[in-house]
Amino acid sequence: MKAAVLTAPAEISSRPLRVLDRPAPTREQGRLLLRVRACGVCRTDLHIVEGELPPRLSNLIPGHQIVGDIVQGNTSLPVGTRVGVCWLGGVDGTCWYCHHNMENLCDSPAFTGYTVDGGYAEYALAREDFVFPLPQRLDDLHAAPLLCAGIIGFRSLRVAGVKAGERVGLFGFGASAHLALPVLQSWKCEVYVSTRGQKHRLLASHLGATWVGGETEKPPATLDRAITFAPSGDVVVTALASLRKGGVVAINAIHLDRIPQFDYDSLLWGERQLRSVANMTRSDASDFLKLAAEISLRPQVTVFPLSEINEALAAIKRDSIDGAAVIVL
Ligand SMILES: [Zn+2]
Ligand SMILES: [Zn+2]
């Protein structure tokens, strides 16, 4: 099979992923073999490829937003079923977090396309209890970005404690935020978007944001909740400065440049909360995919062939993609 393989992390400009011929994986106990149809490209892949996340597997195939057809299945998931595979590729089921309904924080998780091979390949293996049958209304291209960008964005709204009708700020407007916005609109929230890049601001306006401004611009209204998507600590401080008392900032970033020093008295006192968003649970995935089908969520998508995976990641790094990038196989 053709697969994009990371031999050693390096700057994306040096094209560290190489498309090679590799033997297709063979089925293992408890895993399903999938023929990959499409795989979404995520900023986390960039952190893996450039080494900001330490390497965990040599000759890794990244990619964790997989849409695939089952080619070797089981009785409940037969051959031909179209499923999605997400970042959380498995948990131990035995640790304290798994026993307390927090499998996103499992002590021994498997991460698709990081600790196990992912979907930038013609075939992939996935744990049979970590695949999600996809509603027919979601086609391959538009389902792929939902599987990380969408689910993690949805989880961020849950972590921030968003309630119907509230004022919510989205700081950064890439793949995840542009999927969170229609979810918030379906909950009748006012959505304030601060982001860099004229194209991202135009997309946010086009999607009906209540207000759109620059990257570290404070929205004109006090926010109940804010979610930061940019990997920048300055943006986190701007988000905090926009909150009402008792409000919450949820940081949706697996890696931040740093957190700058900030004034506790004016920014955090008053029971404001700063929380990070880590991974996802299976119920986040199934609840979100159900909602996405109900509200006909359609990501804005830019398509790349597997041979241009380095270019797709470079475009994410430059912030030059509207919405999400998807590799089609
Ligand atoms: Zn991701
Ligand atoms: Zn666990």
Strand fraction band? 25-35%
Taking the sheet with the most strands, its summary is: 7 strands, mixed
Shape: globular
Mean pLDDT: 96
Spatial separation of the terminal alpha carbons? 11 Å
From the alpha carbons, calculate the radius of gyration and give it in angstroms.
19 Å
Order of helices and strands: EEEHEEEHEEEHHEHEHEEHEHEHEHE
Low-confidence stretches: none
Q: If helices are DSSP runs of H or I spanning 4 or more residues, what is the number of helices?
A: 10
Task: Enumerate the distinct ligands.
Answer: zinc ion
Q: What's the count of strands?
A: 17
Helical percent range? Answer: 25-40%
The helix-and-strand class reads alpha/beta
How is this structure best described in words?
The protein has 329 residues and is of the alpha/beta class. Helices cover 25% and strands 26% of the residues. It has 10 helices and 17 strands. The strands form 4 sheets. Strands 3, 4, 5, 8, 9, 16 and 17 form a 7-stranded mixed β-sheet that branches. Strands 12-11-10-13-14-15 form a 6-stranded parallel β-sheet, sandwiched between helices. The chain has a two-stranded antiparallel ribbon with strand order 1-2. It starts with a strand and ends with a strand. 48% of the residues are buried. Bound molecules: zinc ion (2 copies). One zinc ion binds next to loops.
Give the SSE map.
Blueprint: E1 2-6, E2 17-21, E3 31-41, H1 43-49, E4 66-72, E5 82-85, E6 88-90, H2 96-99, E7 110-111, E8 123-127, E9 131-133, H3 140-143, H4 149-159, E10 167-171, H5 175-186, E11 190-194, H6 198-206, E12 211-213, E13 223-228, H7 233-241, E14 243-251, H8 264-267, E15 273-276, H9 282-294, E16 301-305, H10 309-318, E17 324-328
Parallel strand pairs: 10-11, 10-13, 11-12, 13-14, 14-15, 16-17
Antiparallel strand pairs: 1-2, 3-4, 3-8, 3-17, 4-5, 5-9, 6-7
Helix pairs in contact: 4-5, 4-9
